[in-house]
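Re-running the complex after MR caught last week's input typo. The corrected sequence lines follow. Everything else is unchanged.
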Amino acid sequence: MDKNTFFWKMVDGRLPPPECAKTLGLKFLDIDAERGTIEVEFQAAPQFLNPVGNVQGGFLAAMLDDTMGPALVATLGDGEFAPTVNLNVQFHRPAREGQLIGKGRIVLRGREVCQLAAELLQDGKIVATATATAVIRKV
Amino acid sequence: MDKNTFFWKMVDGRLPPPECAKTLGLKFLDIDAERGTIEVEFQAAPQFLNPVGNVQGGFLAAMLDDTMGPALVATLGDGEFAPTVNLNVQFHRPAREGQLIGKGRIVLRGREVCQLAAELLQDGKIVATATATAVIRKV
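Corrected-run output:
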């Protein structure tokens, strides 16, 4: 594993996080690039709430995308990137403003095509799950 | 159609938009509740950008959710709501900061289960498409 990529420089503070991660309040709790697993924290802001006062589902989708993406990106070499081509989200419970935990994993790590999965929890309960397909490309 | 619901009050300015809509820069361009179609505008903010400087896919998912959701909500009666239970997004092209157009429609309007579809365009080109399932509930 190449610890000199943009991703790892960001994780250990050598580079600032991207804007989308700041917006979602992303913090890395645990990254195991060998096993392809990740645990991250998000903060659902008041700006994400729908008319009923719950987090709009799309922002939960953004969090799940930002859980699965880094699980894969942690395994990439310098000059590689992996755009998501498909994201499928299942919504189970409403989520409130505040802390959410994302748990992601690489289900299949192909040379190009990768299959990913993740859960999003609040207060220990699953609020949404997702699968995604990403394709590894070279810059 | 009941034009005295929260949704229509919001559309004609009698009530403020929800926070998630403000965050995504949502404006309603056209709503045809009889045909079940909608056209909306979004503004991708710098806060949505990924490390490569494109809009993070999850925020495109949030926009598609906020295209399809209103297409259905426009047809609901007072006291009815319709949480999304599944959202499937296909990403076709990178999207930049700035204006995006969402075009959504109700594919199937069941008494409870509804199937929705939408496209998201930038500069006339499709950047992402989605389907969703929503279920009508009464408060």
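None of the earlier attempt is carried over here. The mean pLDDT of chain B is 94. The first helix of chain B runs from residue 6 to 11.
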